[in-house]
Amino acid sequence: MVSVRKKEISKKDKNLIAELDQQIRSYVQEYGTFSDSELLNQAISDIKKHHENQTRKSGQPVIIHPLRVANYICRAGLDAPTVVAALLHDIIEDTKITHKDIQKRYGNWYADIVKGLTKIKKNERSKIEAGNNIDATYQRMLKTMAQDVRALIIKLFDRLDNMRDMEFMPREKQRRISLETLNVYVPIAERLGLAQICQEHTELCFKILYPKRYQKILKEIDELKQARISSIHAMQNSLHKTLENQNLEFNLVEPLFVHPSTQIKELDPIDHVLEGFRVVVKNGMACFNALGIIHTNYNVIPLKIRDYISNPQWNGYEGLQTEIRIEGEQTRLEIVSDEMLKKNQFGIIARWQGNPAEIADYYQLYLSQLDHMAGDKDVRMSEVLGYVQSDQVQIYSPKGDMLVFPKGATVLDFAYGIHSDLGNHCIGALVNPTSFGASKKRVPRERQLFTGEALQIITDPGINPKKSWLGQVKTSKSRSQIKRALEQQKVASARNSGRLLLEKKLRQKGEKKVVEKWLNTKQVKEALKQEKLSANKFLQEIGLQKRPLLKFLRKHKLLDFKQSGRLKGMIRHELWDKFFGSEKNIFLIEDLHNPMIRLANCCFPIPGDKIRGFIHEDKEIEIHHFNCINYSSKKIKIPLSKIPVEVAWRIPEKLTQQHILHLQVIDGAGILFQITKIIKDAGVTIINSETAARQNNDADIRIETESITWPVFHKIVEKLRPLKFVKKIWEEAPI
Q1: For residues 309 and 340, what is the distance between their CA atoms, to the nearest angstrom?
Q2: pLDDT tens digits, residue range 119-142?
Q3: Which of 24, 474, 504, 511 has the greatest number of CB atoms lying within 10 Å of its CB?
Q4: DSSP H stretches of helix in 322-436
């Protein structure tokens, strides 16, 4: 929206700049400190200097935009530092000023806020990592907003001011920015209770995206108002007189009309213009008094009473709602106090008491979710949008604390929402455990949450997160915690395997020291120092078979190999391998649930297949089928990050378990019959089967078998793989 200005600033714009300048200075002088005023003077001077000769598409000087955004912050009643940050919010993006310049002139807080609100450019993105500029920008923006909620408020006002100027932008850019506003900023504003900002943003998007339908809606609303205004006034007067006759002090009885913003997703013509009435009273107690008066003077619609005073909505909305008949017409009624109305319209801003931590605490769960999304390198904007736009459920702890989760969240999400340790060992929960006379219903961890429930988490210290848990949670925070726990398990498992391997080798060589004492010897410490290894990293690498143990021991002359060499010559090779393990670098897979093992999704190997392995990110071994298309050709270059390692199955052939086969097939007649025939011919009973259609004429088939041995299961899979209609086949992990 910025270009170089070639003409002089108009008198009108000069007056506007002077007026905004004066209003901002007066506000900071009254509510800020002397230091704040000095920084403000510096900020105004900087933006005038660095935005000089820049204009917006509207033709106005660029400086008007940061001044207006800062003025919105003043009118919202936020603190002086937020006003200064608002003035500077575009200076990195639109001028040659850098993050370091802001840091030097204003300090770390201002520099981080401004950087967090700045778009990531292509040249900057290349320095970070390959990927999408928009996702990278949102990642940084969300991180900043989660750390200090004031950045979020600046961004919402920044976008609002840009939307008000959108008519001057090219049509393509109008649509792109409006869709982004509608899908990102409107849900965020709604989640933070910013009803007025949300409403204006939505109406501006409606006006730009669907101009003809928007004008039609305005006309329909106006015509309906004219047709119904006399009956609406009669209903309003009836309510007014009823409250007056009972000597209730109230400030206002006003009709609530349909707003154009609510019609953006509605294609049908408007069939009503009156949404209901709002009664504004002095305080919370007066709300209940008004409700009692109204209910004793009008016919009440059953089951339509909602108390959002004792139990506010997920976005902070407070008030009483009911439905009654006035003048024979069913009408919705909202009863709020002055303070509630302010909170309902201005949400997080109305709760500002001079301390950003206070309003951050109020929206703690929501902001922590954004923080986890920003901190998760795998998260994409689709997940963020899904979260901010989702319906919410309110759940209570046994102590009565309320937590808010997106609809579809599970018991496991609730456990992680309270504490990571509760989540890591969660096996289920008791529902409404403290309700008098209510049964203590026990539910599993994957069960969905429902509004109003109280939960007491049940844990088992012997239970730890599994990869399948990622499919049992809804929130980014839970996924992040599970991933972190799995990573820790992989590292711990690798170190433990390394410790056992080293201990075995020390015993084999006649070394009497335990592993810890051996690692602390001077000679070993020196060897580790030369290899730039810590003791833990050394154990991890030999556990993953990344570093050949015998080669390391020989290189640094840490054990006597002569004695063991004579002993090996006296024992047959196969017995030596059985008792002491081969000197080859082979990782034996004895348990598919070992956190160090990851079965590749590209080829879906199972026990019995010929396989190859690669060390992945120094934490796990990725197992591929030997003929995997990604690694079978000699022409294919294996990434340097993936270190090959020899692997082999060592799973007992007599081990039996139930299996869940999942097949992606090209849909057609007789396919299910051919698949089930192969399974039945192997003498295996099918417990359950499900079929679901996919796009592009594909289908998913899920088959659950009785308990069978791995050789039998492998035989079935080997016969299914060559079928022409089978695109993918894998075993589904048990929940």
Answers
A1: 9
A2: 755 444 444 443 455 556 666 666
A3: 24
A4: 338-350, 356-362, 364-375, 381-389, 411-418, 420-424
- The domain boundary residue, chosen from 649, 678, 696: 649
Is the whole-model pTM more than 0.85?
Answer: no
Backbone angles phi, psi at 377, to 5 degrees: -65, -20
Q: Which domain CATH number covers 684?
A: 3.30.70.260
Burial 68-78 (b: 16+ CB within 10 A, else e): bbbbbbbebeb
Flag whether 473 is in a domain: no
Do 114 and 259 fall within a single domain? no
Note the pLDDT of residue 185.
83
One domain, residues 31 and 178 = yes
Q: What is the pLDDT of residue 539?
A: 86
> How far is the C-alpha of 489 from the C-alpha of 464, rounded, in Å?
9
The CA distance from 720 to 665, in Å, is 11
Domain with 710, as residue range(s), is: 656-731
Q: Structurally, how many domains does the chain consist of? A: 5
AA letter at 164:
R
370-408 pLDDT, tens per residue? Answer: 555 545 555 555 455 555 555 678 788 888 777 778 888
Rounded to whole angstroms, the Cα distance separating 724 from 667 reads 11
Neighbours of 366 (CB within 10 A): 23
**The amino acid at 116:** G
Backbone angles phi, psi at 431, to 5 degrees: -95, 130
Look at residue 438 and tell me if it is in a domain: no
What are 223-253's pLDDT values in tens digits?
999 999 999 999 999 999 999 999 888 889 9
> Final residue of a domain: which of 332, 349, 366?
349
- Give the model's confidence band at 352: pLDDT under 50 very low, under 70 low, under 90 confident, else very high: low
Same domain? 189 vs 226 = no
If you write DSSP's letter for every residue of 79-125 in order, what string do you get?
Answer: -HHHHHHHHHTTHHHHSS--HHHHHHHH-HHHHHHHHHTSPPPHHHH
d(Cα 28, Cα 34) in Å, to the nearest integer? 9
The β-bridge partners of 332 are: 323
Placement of tokens 């912050």 in the chain: 73
> What mean pLDDT is reported for the chain?
82
Within a domain: 49? yes
Same domain, 689 and 725: yes
Same domain, 207 and 274: no
Please state at what angle helix 338-350 crosses helix 195-209, rounded to 10 degrees. Answer: 70
CA distances from 74 to 37, 69, 195, 574 (A): 14, 9, 18, 82
Looking at the fold, whether 21 and 94 belong to one and the same domain comes out as yes
What is the model's pLDDT at position 497?
A: 81
* Closest residue by Cα to residue 135 from 304, 462, 376, 489: 376
d(CA 567, CA 576): 9
Q: Look at 31-45, 111-125, 244-258, 579-593 and tell me which has the smallest mean pLDDT.
A: 579-593
662 within domain boundaries? yes
